[in-house]
Design brief:
This is Cobalamin adenosyltransferase. The chain is mainly alpha-helical and 193 residues long. It is built from 6 helices and 2 strands; from the N terminus they run E-E-H-H-H-H-H-H. The relative contact order is 0.15.
């Protein structure tokens, strides 16, 4: 494969536009650019998560997801093009079922907390939800394949589950379980009222 990026600072965006993969130029606040940016940010958060100690199977899964997110970003940058395969959504469904089966059922809401790796997974989860909203917004104005939206939806669910897995893995010694929300109802129940 040849050099794809021969020049980083092109100055072509100085006028507030950016080039899509098909060569068209759009405003930097275009819905498509928002969706691309949110997917890129999500991928970057996964890169930070991958810098943490992780179980090897989780690490391998996240690396695969990073490549798939890059495909999704490429697809978003080229209207009408397909890079993210539908099998990628099925792979997330399988991972979700696999990791969720290992966890105790939730009886209360949990906080995005615990180990550093779990907290980073929660941050990535919230960015995945934002990226999903951006893709939905884009889809209301332009054609977007269902797989793009579905992938981000499943990924946010998977990242929630992986946060719980990472708390239990406790690789930094600061976790061990979910961090439960201390709701007002729980306070009343504990106080006997």
């Amino acid at each position: 494969m040849g050099n794809r990026l021969s020049q980083i600072a092109t100055r072509t965006g100085d006028d507030g536009t950016t080039g899509l993969g098909d060569g068209t130029r759009v405003s930097k606040d275009h819905l498509r650019v928002h969706a691309m940016g949110d997917v890129d940010e999500l991928n970057s958060h996964l890169g930070v998560l991958l810098a943490e100690p992780l179980p090897q199977d989780v690490r391998e899964l996240l690396v695969t997801i990073q490549h798939e997110l890059f495909n999704l970003g490429g697809e978003l940058s080229m209207p009408g093009f397909e890079l993210l395969k539908t099998q990628a959504v099925a792979r997330l469904d399988e991972a979700l079922a696999h990791y969720n089966a290992q966890l105790p059922r939730l009886k209360e809401f949990i906080l995005p907390a615990g180990t550093r790796s779990a907290a980073l997974a929660h941050v990535a989860r919230t960015v995945a939800r934002r990226a999903e909203r951006a893709v939905v917004a884009l889809g209301q104005h332009e054609a977007v394949r269902d797989a793009a939206r579905q992938y981000l939806n499943r990924l946010s669910d998977l990242l929630f589950v992986l946060a719980r897995v990472l708390n239990r893995a406790n690789l930094d010694g600061l976790g061990g379980d979910d961090v439960y929300w201390n709701s007002e109802r729980l306070k009343r129940d504990d106080a006997g009222g």
